[in-house]
UniProtKB/TrEMBL annotation:
It comes from Strigops habroptila. GO terms for cellular component: cell surface; growth cone; neuronal cell body; plasma membrane. Residues 691-705, 1216-1236 have a biased composition (Low complexity). It is a single-pass type I membrane protein. This is Neural cell adhesion molecule L1. The chain crosses the membrane at residues 1128-1149. Residues 1237-1248 have a biased composition (Pro residues). PROSITE patterns: FN3 (PS50853), IG_LIKE (PS50835). Residues 33-125, 132-219, 233-321, 326-413, 418-502, 511-603 form the Ig-like domain. The gene is L1CAM. Residues 690-714, 1216-1292 are annotated as: Disordered.
Amino acid sequence: MALPRGFGLLLLLPALGGPGAAITIPSEFLQPPELTEQPPEQLVVFPSDDVVLKCAATGNPPVQYRWTREDEPFVPEEHPGVSLAPGSGTLLINASLAGRLQGRYRCAASNALGTALSTESRVIAENTPQWPKEKVLPVEVEEGDPVVLPCDPPKSAVSPKIYWLNSRIVHIAQDARVSMGQDGFLYFANTLVGDSHPDYICHAHYLGPRTIIQKEPLDLRVAPSNMVQSRRPRLVVPRDSQPSHVALRGGTLVLECIAEGLPTPSVRWQRLNGPLPRGRVSLENFNKTLRLRDVEEADDGEYECVAENSQGQARRSHLVTVEAAPYWVRRPQSGVFGPGEVARLECAVQGKPRPRLAWRINGVPIDEVPGSARRVVQEGALVLSQLEPNDTLVAQCEAQNSHGRLLANAFVYVVELPVKILTQDETQYMVVENRTVFLHCRAFGAPAPTVEWLTPGLEPALQDDRAFVFTNGTLRLRPVARGDGGTFTCRAHNAHSNASISAHLDIRVATRIEVPPQSVTAKKGQTVTFRCVAAFDPELSPRGLEWHRDGQRLQDTADSDKYVLSGDTLTVTAVDYTDQGTFRCRAWTWLDAAEAEAQLRVVGRPGPVWDLQVLEINERQVRLSWTPGDDNNSPVEKFVVEEEEGFFSAGRFVERVTVPGGQPWALLTLSPYGQYRFRVLATNAYGRGEPSAPSAPIDIPAAAPERNPGGVKGEGNETSNMVITWQPLAPGDWNAAEVRYRVQWRPLEPEGGRWHEKTVPAPPVVVGGTPTFSPYEIRVQAVNDAGKGPEPPVTIGYSGEDLPLLYPENVGVEILNSTSVRVRWSLTGPPRDLRGHLRGFRVLYWHEGWVGERARRQAPPAPPGAPPSPRVVTVPGEAHGVVLGGLRPWSRYRLRVLVFNGRGDGPPSDEIRFDTPEDVPGPPEELHVERVDETTLALEWKRPRHPNGVLMGFLLQYRPENHSEAEPPNEITFPAGTLNTTLGRLQPRARYRLALHALSRVGPGAPLLRLGSLRPEPVLPVLGSVVVGEVGEDFTVLHWTLAHPQANVEFKVQYMSKTTEGSWQDSGSVNSSLGLFRLRDLSPGTSYRVQFVGRNHSGHHVPFWESEVQTNGTLLPRPARGFATEGWFIGFVSAAVLLLLLLLILCFIKRSKGGKYSVKDKEDTQADSEARPMKDETFGEYRLTARRRRRGARGGLWARRGRRWAVTTAWRATAAAPTCSSTRTAPSSGSTAAPAAPGPPAPAPPRPSTRGDPPGDGDPPPRPGATDPSGAADAGAPLWHWGSPPSNMGTP
């Protein structure tokens, strides 16, 4: 990135002019020699390589080079094939002389001001490595044993890289079981038959000569074994019981543990004297190798490896000692000094063992240089005092111990020079706030000039605690603030002169991350978005925002949509496990940058396990072991072992066993005659992972069956046979290619008998010629070619059943309540007559009618057809009774009980008859309430559908709606025949709550509730307007308004197509208060007539609005017209006329015939067994036959006055023409409820009844002496009479 001209780049570390920087002497002055290139500490060459030892230096006047070999002068010109490179001191030795001239070399560079020395370099010449010829014998082991394949490559100063390949140049697969050690050997923790190969080849790659050599192929032969047994781990590497290691500071420590065992051991590491160093430890080679980088002195201690499997553990401790080659603590620095000054060259070195320190002057040991009183070594530092111009020199500080050596050159240049500032004047510096800035002022002079910095206010900079001036003149200011900007001045001076420069400092707003990205944990396949919002200094440009993943910058690419960068967001689509890592957002300008990072963690189902091994423990048991795969950031909860049986279910793996997630092994017991393969799946919180590769198949030989079939039964499907069945064994239980069944049977007798048997491949076996329902002993045994199964148990079976000959006896009925009875019975006959297994009993019962009906001998004959079906209750097992519920109160029943077996039902028991008692009646079927005037309500009701006994009457309770429930209601009791009444003297315009109960001898039944209102309300709603709203293809919506407020009034909406001219169709009912109705099921594009129909005061349905609509929504108004012109009215009148004519004709015919009628057919008051005794003042019942009713007989009217009953009967004694209308009597004063005073208002006289229908089939007749249920006591009711006339009435 290009910077604006004139500006320097802020560096956070010292750069030019910073502490420790080399002194730069202007080119116009003399300069002592300084080395720029040195030879390596060790150089290994091979026959084809020339020796090149580099050496280069700077100095004024130009330097001269010389070499020493083995501390002796080495003159290249004296050795043909040896020379110096032109323009430098690099020594070149021809490859042919390398072997003869190997040794220790050192370069010296000199000019008039001194001599600089290089480090010592060792030259080693080696021949091209070759593997010696050797005779390789096959390596033979048994399955499960460990083995080590050696490599032993030729030795070299540079260790080669080792590879194991086969003859096809394919790498030998390595895993936790098979791996290569640091020594290059190939270690097998245990062997498999599949490890047998004749071409295990060790290859050694030497990087120096660029040569790869290979060992003779090794032939590994693994013999199969049936005696493979598990064993605990044993450590093969290291071989010492407690190995010790010396690690060098700053280097890399490698510890190794390789174990053998079965199952394959796993290895883990721990540090006994503390935790493993974080961030610098890595486990390699399947945890067998521990690598510690950048070793520190605190890393020494004891490191332990633990190899473990299911059989045990093996441990080995590694004792680690950390030492160090010499390293610099304070390195001597060159300096320019003036005459009379003191020069001090510091040289501080550390190492373990402690290094030896030595000084040289111009390459000569200080002890051999002529002494001077002004030169002394103090605590490792060389001190030169009272310097003179001829004291200029180059000094060498050298330190060495057993692990290496260090050498540093530093010159002392004594000269008198004026001050010169080498840094450019008017340099501009730009920095962001809160950072560190370095303002440079590199000054040169002798004596060394003194540097002073002034702030923009011309005050000494060092007065600010944030300022610091280095010895090279650089000013450091940290942290800088916005107010620190301006022009700073650097002044340098010595005894001869002074100089100054200016530096301009500009402070900018730091770039910052305002909204950092957040770490995310996502499931595999999800899309993740990171957001990063940054703020910049508005005057800094260019600037930008970029994203990095694990140090690599992310960019949009045309061929991939994996990463989508948009503004301040980064979207990672369809995340996978390879996407997890650190995502860093970097906001940058040319001046600074700000960063924030987030972690992406991808979770999902675990990866497949690997290294699945199957070891045979014995003929029927195997042990599976495996290595868990990647858990994908979610711990493995369990492993699922699946099994495939190749003979019977090839290709289908089924779940066999589940083991915990921390147990990578399983023991399985296998069935004989099977070919098994296994695979393992890992499961975590996100589901099951992919299965492992299937194991090699294992064959188990055939064996005799270990189980016999279950579910053995013996049952007959005919009366003379027995069918033996069983549940066949599953193929996995056959233990052979096929299985057969040996079936044995014999009659169950005390003395036993001879077994009959038959061997069949599958059920059933039919045994014929057996007596009915006889017991047999049965055995079924599985057999195959390898032998018989275990001795089978005996099962009792029976031959075929026949219908029972027994029937239940002592059948009795206990009445529990009006709807339930308990039926009891016993079974006392001989068990052989059951002729089968007792399955249970059936109770059959019939409803005969109501208790109050006349005897069956007087009942009309039953209609032709099938007799009525009984209700049946089935009682399983050996029961002796049952409760029958759901019966009808006050009813006659008959029942029978029979027994049944597997063949069918036996004969029924004797018939039992019983009656259920009375109960309270059900609610009245209807109750109509109408307003007569402001103080009177008219009530009309129907008898209850279920009287449940003799209907005694009705109880009416009523109270005003606004009265409390705690207040007692007004009550009125009516006879059974009264079906209407009028309530008068009520509160004007009030609303009443009415409750009507039916009464029986047991008590009142449930009420029928109604609400009556005395407020005047019109029957038909009065509409203000009707309009058409929304219209569709098959519907339209009608809206209306009411002309004035009204209570809820229901009416019907009817429609008729104008095209077909059909009949009116109901669309539904609607409440006038709703104000709208949706007319549905219309035809598209069709006109319809629509009308509203309601009930008038007389109860007739009449239309009160009509118009025409079209499905497209057009409303066609139609003028109203009188009903007299309507077709329905004309048709109604015509039909009435025709009906009247027909009635007249019928009446004429009947009058012309005449006839005699008997008053009485038969009196049955004495003969009827169900008739009840009568009191003296009570008449008996009287019934007209249906024939006489059809011929117009008249009944009597019972009315009760006081406690007596009187009957008025009109009879025709001679043949007279019957009337064509029902005869009605005048209202009886006895049916009017007299008001009581004081008390609630009394009801008005009852209105004539409009309900003269005869009782329904389900209504019981009245008992003698009770109110006639026909309603004869209701004044004005038709004279329908039920029952017989009183016995003291003669025939008219």
